[in-house]
Amino acid sequence: MHILQGVKQLNSPLEASVITIGNFDGVHLGHQQLIENVVREAQYFGVPSVVYTFHPHPVKVLRPERATYRLFDLQDQQEQFQKRSVEYVIIEEFTKDFAKVSPQEFLEKYIVANLHPKTLVVGHDFSFGADRAGNIPFLEKFCAEKGIRLIIIPPFQYQGAVVSSTRIREKLKSGEVEKANELLGRTYYVRGHVEKGFQRGRTIGVPTANIHPDVEFIPRQGVYCTLTKIGNHLHPSVTNIGVNPTFHESGKGPIKIETHLFDFDAHLYGTEVEVYLLHFIRDEMKFSGIEELKAQIQKDMAETRRYFDEHPEVR
Asked: What's the predicted TM-score (pTM) here?
């Protein structure tokens, strides 16, 4: 798979392609359906499949007051595209100047001139260009004039509601991890490198890996049943996401992700790990002292072991 930072990185224009355009935050079930259509269409015509996307997220540039955080990092997005056999990923830098480009100019200058699409695949609510003036009717007219096949993917529904990144964020913020994972079509995870913490867990007999996540989005603060991926191996674990209010008087310390791996004893400092969220146990709590904290941790560990016993399929 070729990853390009904008169409300017193409050595020469593609002779033909099948392309989709969008943000693809989370690469959820709806996105997966759209990408599968692109790849299938490209294979039928014998031309490259192309995903054209943007970074940073347009909302962050145009509406910075609206805190929109990606569900996963860009590396995950690229991994998901590669799994689905996409041949080219073009990541266009989204700036305020780029946002002023008209729909006509964007299609002519960036898409047609460089990618020569035989087919364009978009979602039902796709819009683009200055003032989002490039809507579906605009695309239909443009594609008809250029002889480009246009495929419009209807909204993907799961259990009677449209799947969206916003809906997945809402589920994660409310602790409905299982529901979020169903909408994603895969298990939500946080990825980051293990850093040296205060080592409080080790002093009370429950050592933890402290992870600094690679994305700004944080799900509901609290304790989760998790699987932690180290290399190619998954380890049952229990994870706390939060500020450790027992050790912060204000309850407003920095967000930390602390994971205790069961039956595991090895130093992980500097290692990149992925922590997969399976089930929300409880909200983060402030305890009166170390002994009360230790007692609750034992309960959390027991509940996590019970979860894995009752759900052997997740291991």
From this structure: 0.89
